[in-house]
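Sanity check

After download, print the first record. It should look like this:
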Amino acid sequence: MPNMNYPYENLSPEALPGELWSPIPKLDAPYEVSNFGRVRRLEKNSIDKKGIPRQKPGMIIKTIISESQNSQTGDTAKYAGITLSANKKRYYLSVARLVYYCFVDEFDLSDKQLLVFPKDGDNLNLSADNLLLGTPKDKAARMMASGRRRSFFPEFSEEVKKKSRDKITATKKEKGTYNVSRYSLSGQLLETYSNARIAAEAMNTAQGYISIAARDTGKVVTACGYLWRRGNEPELDLKPILKERWYGHSPLAKQQHIIGQYDLEGNLVNTHVNTVEAAKAVRVHKNGIRNVINGRGLTYGGFIWSKVIRKKIAVDPKITESRSGISQYDLDGRWIQTFKNCVAAARATQVDNTNIHLAVNGHTLTAGGYLWRKGQQLRININELRKHPHYAGSGLQRHMKRKREAAVLQ
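Expected structure tokens:
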């Protein structure tokens, strides 16, 4: 057997001691990567064009080693990659990025400004505990420290350099711009460090990764599972952060409401984290909500759905045209029935036609002990009616008071 210096060179399907496997992210295909940097294809059953069942056995996929020449030193650096097929397409992926994402910390794989480095300087040592995340600035610093890159700035004397560094340090200390603080995902201050380098050492990551997260200007809003900011504010306001839409890879995405629920007049009723949670709240199927969002429907469950979060959105004229009829609701906001017009509603319910008309147009709150609305939806939000000018002393107010009293007695 040939001498093997790295785990990826071992093509045996047998697991190595301490080896763990994880599905390759963002790729809907039967591939896995290990914490040692090996990539395998799982056993797969399929049917060929002739309808004959075929079985592809699992196997370790050979890693591709590419070389990049350093024009300044003349030597070459080696990098490990892998080519995989999925959905009739071929993808070339960096093994180091996959290992870091799966076994160290998730990050935006599409962000090419985030780089994965080996701690020991060996690009072929793909073990998860040898990897850290950084930026092009970190890469340049590492290359200069190892003598593989020259400084493009003029050479100054040590005295001039020291004087410049001391001046910068004094200015930053005076303004407090050196401090960097770590926060929980709820915005609570956890710890403050004197600078990003010390914070990075504590988190076992690259200084540039912490610095980017602390700037609050790019796509990386978290680093190592935490929020970071310059200074030492006791708490962060998450509202402006959660309004952004560019960080699905971030753990903050679980707190981000990106689905808007609107009534048929375009007024915002509620927001939800995703279509699954929205469907649970309204008690409908998630696919119907997704169809509306993707333009394959106008409404679903009596509501308009959108990924645009605003207080009010424009309503498609087709929805307005289809909103015919007058609907009757009980004082809990539940739909009872829909009539062709106010006259038909009055005949069926024995409630005065004029009173129904006034309630429908918002001049009164109720008519005949019921709520009335144009069009039809499964339920209306009665809590919003507390702001109605005729809420005080109305039958709805008395009804809600009785419900509160009954809840206290129970």
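If your output differs, re-run the checksum step. Summary of this record's structure: The mean pLDDT is 82.
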